Amino acid sequence: CRRLVELMVSPSAEIQRAVLCIIANIVTAGNDHQTRFIMNASVLPCLSSALSDSRRMARKEACRLVSSITSRSKEQIQAVIENNMIPPVIEYMTSDEEYDVRVEATRAITNAICGGDADQVKFLVRQGCIRPLCGSLDSGDVGVVIASLGALEKILKVGQEDAERSASHNHMPALVEQAGGVSQIGKLGQSSNNDICEKSSNMIGTYFRAGTDKRE
């Protein structure tokens, strides 16, 4: 296993891609013990190097592996955060020229938000995840749209829970609106996909209706 991790930074594109795929499959399909074993083999430092690789396939598979890790547990999400992998992945959501890299980066961030605790979600917000998530709402990929809506809904919910505990204002809707998300979510209320239509309509009604009515 340790040898596999070492090969994540192989100069051979074919070897690197194969190794990243193997480790991602282990993390995705394996149990918690197997995932922990992979993590203990220093996979994250090598993964950080793969994320900065100039080769498209390396970036794609590295983001896919991050996505597999962030889909596991809050402990694994925290490990990704502590190894400073969130900023480059968020950047790839919008800046990478390759669509498949942007998709894998989006999945990694949406997994981290949907599976993370309140502090982890707020950290991701501070890192600037809201604007690229809003940008992902006009993707033609139904899975990406649903995942992005789910992540934004979790962010709004965390903000609401914070506001209720402190008897203050939920500032998350304003951040979504500033990122152009309200209009995008509103448009999705007309989607032919029932899941997208229902989720977006519920979000508008729960978090934005007062502001929408005021503007009307």
What is the terminal separation in angstroms?
60 Å
Count of strand segments: 0
Oligomer: single chain
Task: Give the class from helix and strand content and strand pairing.
Answer: mainly alpha
- CA-based shape: globular
- Low-pLDDT windows of residues: 211-216
The number of distinct helices, counting runs of at least 4 residues, comes to 14
The mean pLDDT is 89
* Percentage of β-strand residues: under 5%
Radius of gyration: 18 Å
Could you characterize what this model shows?
The protein is 78% helix and 0% strand. The chain is built from 14 helices and no strands. The longest helix is centred in the C-terminal third of the chain and has 25 residues, at 142-166. The protein is globular, with a radius of gyration of 18 Å. Mean pLDDT is 89; it is low at 211-216.
Task: Summarize the topology.
Elements (H helix, E strand, L loop, with lengths): L1 H5 L6 H17 L2 H9 L2 H9 L4 H15 L3 H9 L3 H10 L3 H17 L2 H9 L3 H6 L6 H25 L5 H7 L2 H8 L5 H22 L1
Helix pairs in contact: 2-3, 2-5, 4-5, 5-8, 7-8, 8-11, 9-11, 11-14, 13-14
List keywords for this structure.
216 residues, mainly alpha, globular
What is the structure about, briefly put?
The protein has 216 residues and is mainly α. Helices cover 78% and strands 0% of the residues.
